[in-house]
DNA sequence: AGCAAAATGTCGGCTAATTTACACTTCGCT
DNA sequence: AGCGAAGTGTAAATTAGCCGACATTTTGCT
């Protein structure tokens, strides 16, 4: 990969924005680049050397298999997000992999050990990274407490609001979301059965809160959710 | 407070164990010390300057109030744990406070800004701290996914196992836990109603899995849980 | 175009667990 | 010692949402 390309990729993430061109260039830590298409599975825990990944394009879901063999969606990663062993500790206990949701994705990665060295040499970056991990933790806490204390309907509403906020195209009070999730995915994210999710979505459509199809979701009036 | 005392307090947490005596002494970041007794409430978010706290003695619970005014237990902090704005970002959105569970507690604290400076000057510490926050995140993720996918009984069993492991006095296969929680607390932690928790605990007692009273819980055979 | 697989829609029975309601016990305090 | 508050025990009614079962629609593939 060309030096300039590396620079551009890293520079694009807000975490690295504070580093100068020469700093990034000097570090040269990007060691992998990968393209993949819809439905493909990318293993990243265990396997070879521990890495941190940056999703450059598209969407993926992080899925884990529990003891009973059920799939659970752990996270949805969007363009620009980091994923992988963000805690800088490898654990082989959890069996996780990523599955491509959008038509195609571009992923770049670097070695965890290289990243650690970088953090050691750039205390400011280390501090930013700590805050970044902390923010991620806060988000998780927040979404989980929703899962626990609210009913399925409220959870779906909250999920749609969050999704609309992070990715929706706003047009007045109406928001259009590119829908790369199946109803089953949505059900898993809000921790309910597929049937319940279907029922709730149809109910919302009947109440003219949104219009749903496999390509996009249009929320008529985001303020009414 | 005497310099030596400060040193001792910090030194006691594994995070600071790598720092030399002179380093800690030089930094002198402990700026607060506090004792409190059972039932007392300690506010730590919002209010004055942001701080990080270290619980030296006793047990506290972190409680938050949601929109509807219900109390939720966010975390149980044990002797030696850090708490407060561990993410190094203050947010005033969440209304959280700590409540003392044990007879009395000792808490020391330092300013978040001082701690940030310290991290900037000690990259190794910064890295350790990041991993520490990451570990905390992993624990939270794990306990939440238990909450979501398992039924109340399994959750209670898991909670008791965890509690026994972190604090229990082992004696062969039997483990004795000092019980500073009410059944209501336990119910909140495992996210069920007080009645269900009571019922399950009595059921376990009837099945001779444990003996419960307000002072202690004795698990007859930890391997059978 | 045609077929299999994946995704969506719909229905009732079933069950864990919440809710409501109340009695009893223990604790902390003056 | 005695009282109120907090904690614990128990039971019945109610319900959200899971599960199984199936029909229909849409997609991707050759």
From TrEMBL, chains A, B:
UniProt keyword annotations, A-Z: DNA-binding, Transcription, Transcription regulation
GO cellular component terms attached to this protein's record: cytosol
Organism name: Flavobacterium resistens
Domain HTH crp-type: 150-223
GO molecular function: DNA binding; DNA-binding transcription factor activity
CDD domains: CAP_ED
Domain (Cyclic nucleotide-binding) ranges: 15-119
Short name of one Pfam family: cNMP_binding
Annotated SUPFAM superfamilies: cAMP-binding domain-like, Winged helix' DNA-binding domain
InterPro entries: cNMP-bd_dom, cNMP-bd_dom_sf, Env_Response_Regulators, HTH_CRP, RmlC-like_jellyroll, WH-like_DNA-bd_sf, WH_DNA-bd_sf
Name of the featured protein: CRP/FNR family transcriptional regulator, anaerobic regulatory protein
